[in-house]
Each structure stands twice: as structure tokens, then as C-alpha cells.
Amino acid sequence: MDMMATEETQAFEEMCSFGQKQRASNSAQNDRKAQTKRQKTEDVSLQDDMYIRVNYARFNMKIRNSIFEQECFRSYNLEAGLVMRAMLILAETKQQDLNDLVSDPISAQAIVMKLGQQSNIVKTCFPARAANGQFNLKLKNTGDLVAEMLSVMGKQDDLATSTSSAFAPGSLSKGLAQLNPLAVVSEKKNNVLGGGSGSGGMREFKVEYARYSLELRKALVSRIIREKYGIEAARVVRILMHKGRLDEKHLAKFAMMTLKDSRELCLKLSAGKVIELQEVPKTNDRQPSRTFYLFFIDFQKLILNLTMMIRKSQTNLIIRIDQELKQRKNLLCKVNRTDVIEDQDGLLTVWERADLKKLKTLVQVLEVAKLRLERDLFILNDLPWLQ
Question: Which segments show compositional bias classed as Basic and acidic residues (predicted)?
Fold first, then answer.
């Protein structure tokens, strides 16, 4: 009974962990190796004259992978987020910093091995049998399913127009309206498959770091503009980023706005240094009546302006936190006393406890806002640029 309980515990821990699937034959050997490695790690002691430092490059890669995984989960589903996490972990082993534009090719079978027991969750995206009879889940292994999911993430299967998709109805409906026009992953060229069941696991894919980073920047810029200037301004910015230079008439047509509203909005955005104005004269005299006025977006300049705006917001949050703490200086001094720490309920009044709870909630909200702004700065400045 004890042996059965131990095996069940090991299986449960293996299922919950996000590591490579271990075979039952060498599980005991792996446990002994892990225990020996743990003992060696515990025995290591640092001398007083030794210096340690943070590996910022590796730390930034962890943050980037976390952002990619979260955005993939938001745009697709949980299973796609798990596949993306495994793919990013495999690609991270051969990277040194954030300068890589694409990752090394990774096979679908390697992703399945990295998923371990969680690879069974991938099957929940697929029906047991398609209505047209072209797909049967029993004839597909996990490598084929992961390869098909990566093909969808690589925009090789347009779910918005395809009626024969193998995915379960509604499994990806949440993200259909949020799919980016550029692929998260791309398939390696000259993939040669032998055909038959299981051949999909040999297909290799790459993570498009630079292309996806560009889409994250565009989405973040659109969100910031929408929060500050409104949804119509965000629509104008997206049109200009996609179309390039446009005059006010064509811009009003694409944005489905009146010419008057479009002109006023463009002037407002130009004053806020969001869009730029270029004059194209018809003649050499440069008469205003014979000049084209084209609106466009200098993306690098816009990123710089948004970075300065976010820095100002961070400064305001720091000042706000400091001001809130100064206003309750007497209460904080009382709370930090040793006797009050041991018995807050008895030595603090009802009003003081309520005020302290309100202060903690407010400071927590402001700190979370600071972290979100720091995440936005990381997306704008630290992620790789598409060359």
C-alpha cells in the first residue's frame, strides 16, 4: 500500500510539474541524481571575498517569455499558452540575450517531450471526429496535434474562414478577433515529412521574436492612445500605421468619420506629438492652396514620446505614494511600535485600523500600477526590433 501511494504521489507531482516526461524505468535513477545534485547545492558555501551579480540578460529573457506566454494565452487559449511556454523554454537554452530576432528551429516532438504529462491537455482542443470525416483524433498522436496548433499560430490555417478546421467549435472563439496579423511562430522552410501518422512531430518551428515584439508594441501604442484620446484616435493611429501617409480626405474615409471630425482629431493628435504632418507642394511657389498635407506616424519618435509620458506617470505614482505615507506618518509610527505589532486589535482604535487598511489597499494599487507601467516600458524599449 505504501508503494502504491508513493507511485501515485510521484505521478501526481510529475503531472503538475512542467518538465520533461520521465520513463518509469529510470525514474529512480533520476530521483537519486536530483537528490545528489540537491545535496551538492546545499553544501556550497560562498566565501566572504566572493562577489555575485544579477544576470540581467537572462532575467530579461524570462520577462520576455512570460509576456509572450501571457499574450498567447489571451489571444488563443490555455493549451496554446502551454505549448508556447514549452517552446520558449527550449529556445532559451541557446540564447544569450534579447538581440535574437528568431529562435532556433524546434521540432513538435521536442515540445511534446517538454510538456510531459501536460501534453494530454492539447487533445482537449480537438474533437473526437470531424463532421466531414477528414479528421479522427484516435489516429493522431500528440506530436501531430502540437504541429497543427503551431500551424494555426503561424497563420497557416485561417480559422476565421476555414470550415474544415480540426479544432473543437468554440475552443478558439475568444481570440479570433484578437489574432495579430503576423505569426507568433513560423515553420522552418524545406520541411520534408515522410507522411503518415506521427510525421507531424518531425516538423520544426521557430519563434518570431522581432515580428511578435513589433505587434506587441503596436497593440500597446493603440491601447495607450485609446485611453488618452479615445477610440476614434486609436482607429486613426492604427490606420496610419498600416497605410502610411494619408491626407485628411482619405483618412476620414478609412476611419469612417466626417471630414470635419477627422481634421479636428488629426490636429489634436498632432499637437500631442502622436502623428506628424508632411507638406508636399505641387509647385515651386509652395502656396498652401496648391500643397498636399499628409499625416503619418514616425514610430520611433512616437515610442520615445510614449516612453517619456510613462516615465512621468511613474514619477507621479512615486510622489503619490510618498505623499500618502507622509499624511499618515503618526499612524505608521504607532503601528511600527513593538507593543502595537504584537497586539494591533487591542492598541489600535477602530478608526485607526480602518485607516490603516485603506492605506495598505491604496499603496498596493499604486504599486501594481507602477509594475504595469514598467511592463509597458519593457515592451516599448527592451524587446527586439524588426530590422
Answer: 30-42
What pTM value is reported for the model?
0.72
Burial class (CB in 10 A: 0-12, 13-18, 19+), 166: buried
Q: Once rounded to an integer, what is the mean pLDDT over residues 44-66?
A: 85
Q: Are residues 203 and 86 in the same domain?
A: yes
Same domain for 283 and 356, yes or no, is no
Query: Residue 340 in contact with residue 334, Cβ under 8 Å?
Result: yes
More confident call, 38 vs 372: 372
**Averaged pLDDT, 234-250:** 90
* DSSP state at residue 379: I
The confidence band for 133, taking pLDDT boundaries of 50, 70 and 90, is low
Q: Is 271 exposed, middle or buried (0-12, 13-18, 19+ CB in 10 A)?
A: exposed
What are the pLDDT digits (tens) for 177-197? Answer: 333 334 566 666 555 443 344
Same domain (yes/no): 264, 326: no
Write out 50-92 in H/E/C secondary structure. Answer: CCCCCCHHHHHHHHHHHHHHHHHHHHCCHHHHHHHHHHHHHHH
Q: Are 254 and 271 part of one and the same domain?
A: yes
> Is 293 in the same domain as 306?
no
Q: What separation in angstroms does the CA of 312 have from each of 115, 298, 319, 347?
A: 42, 21, 11, 40
Instruction: Provide the 10 A C-beta neighbour count for residue 278.
Output: 10
CB 347 within 8 A of CB 339: yes
Task: Assess whether 222 and 278 both reside in one domain.
Answer: yes
Q: Per-residue pLDDT for 365 more than 90?
A: yes
Widest CA span in the chain = 96
Domain that holds residue 354: 302-338+345-382
Residue 246 CB neighbour total at 10 angstroms: 19
Q: Within this chain, do residues 62 and 106 fall inside the same structural domain, yes or no?
A: yes
CATH number of domain containing 236: 1.10.10.10
